[in-house]
Amino acid sequence: MVSIQIDTKSCTGCGLCVELCPLSVFDFAAPGGNSVPEVKRPEACCACMTCSGKCPQSAIRVAQSDPPKRWLDDESESPAVLLDQEEETRYKEYASVLDGILKLRWKPVAVTLIQQGEPFPHVPVPRVKLRYCQSLIMARRGKQILMPPSSHACPDGTSILGLTKIPPKLASGDIYIKLGKLASREAAQTLVNGRSTLPEESIRATLVTPLDDPVLRADIVVIIAPPETMMWLSMASTYFTGRRMNFQMGSYNAQCLETTVYPYTTREINLSLGCYGCRAISDLSDDLMFMGIPLEKMEQLIAGLTHLGRKAIPDARSKTYLPPLI
Q1: CATH code at position 26
Q2: 178, 14 Cβ separation under 8 angstroms
Q3: Tens digits of per-residue pLDDT, 27-83?
Q4: 158 CB-near residues (< 8 Å, 6+ apart)
Q5: DSSP alpha helices (H): ranges in 173-226?
Q6: Based on CB atoms within 10 Å of each CB, which residue in 213, 234, 242, 258 is the most buried?
Q7: Domain span at residue 34?
Q8: Containing H/E element for 63?
């Protein structure tokens, strides 16, 4: 549940919240502005925190309380098909090899996009609304998180992931301009129209879990790590082919688009630098990058990494080829 309070004594009526809210929660009591905005559509609020974060007077407070239910009632006739023992063991082996060779700081994350008509697994929804990127960051720390649209806090991300329709303000690109992220309507339209998205309302929920603690069959494996780790992962994926990789990145919609939807739709590994959104709402350090790997690519990647781990990786990390100082 979300509640919004406006401090009418601090508010100057600038109208920035009215302009920036992607879901048009706020409006002026009278046409023309110059008054304290009102919360006209509180039920539409997704707790993205754009209003409170951008208010120049810090006059807006958005609070969340526990959802009515943390375990979702499922109307599906059959229960979710959980991983069998063989698949679960394979995922855990992937995680073990990745950590054993690369010494990962954070757990790899298994992502499942639950389609409409598919049942929910017995995994709790979060206590508060989260952005998809926040759920990935929590899963890398060991959490299992199930998020239907009502648990998501980013309307841009939910529309890209196929959970919801895209709101008009985001479809037009106006918010990108107002936030100072792009120079013009033309640039914003190019960004919005050029990105891959899943069909509207085709996805019922996102499920993220640690790769070594899976629940359902993963669609994508996401790894959050420094550039040196990403170098070895890239080399491992091409160890048997020598094929150079072409990554799609634009520093917009990093986790939802670049590390999830793009690998999901193309079935190709993709690398991302992250975006202003996922860095602004998390404790991600500046040296971290993101990689999305389709599940079917994992077998070859792990095999390549195993070979690299015998000589190339230890040699490089021990600076074997560093010349003596003169």
Answers
A1: 3.30.70.20
A2: no
A3: 987 766 568 899 999 999 999 999 999 999 999 999 998 776 676 766 655 677 789
A4: 46, 132, 149, 152, 164
A5: 174-178, 185-194
A6: 258
A7: 2-64
A8: strand 60-64
| Strands 203-210 and 109-115, bridge-based pairing | antiparallel
Sign of CA dihedral 162, 168, 171, 173: negative
The counts of H helices and E strands in the chain are: 13, 10
Domain co-membership, 33 together with 121 = no
18 inside domain: yes
What CA–CA distances, in Å, run from 158 to 54, 151, 253, 255?
A: 21, 10, 11, 11
Q: Judge contact between 174 and 230, C-beta under 8 A.
A: no
Residues near 187 by Cβ (< 8 Å), separated by ≥ 6?
173, 176
What whole-number distance in Å separates Cα of residue 122 and Cα of residue 114? 13
Shared domain for 59 and 116, answered yes or no, is no
Length of the chain: 326
DSSP, collapsed to helix, strand or coil, labels residue 257 as helix
pTM of the model: 0.92
Residue 322 located in a structural domain: no
**Taking the C-alpha atoms of 190, 171, 273 and 88 in order, what is their torsion angle to the nearest 10 degrees?**
-130
Nearest Cα residue to 202 out of 165, 167, 169:
165
Q: Is residue 180 part of a domain?
A: yes
205 dihedral zone (left: phi>0; alpha: psi -120 to 50; beta): beta
Which tokens in the block code for residue 205?
Answer: 């929920």
Question: Do 182 and 96 fall within a single domain?
Answer: yes
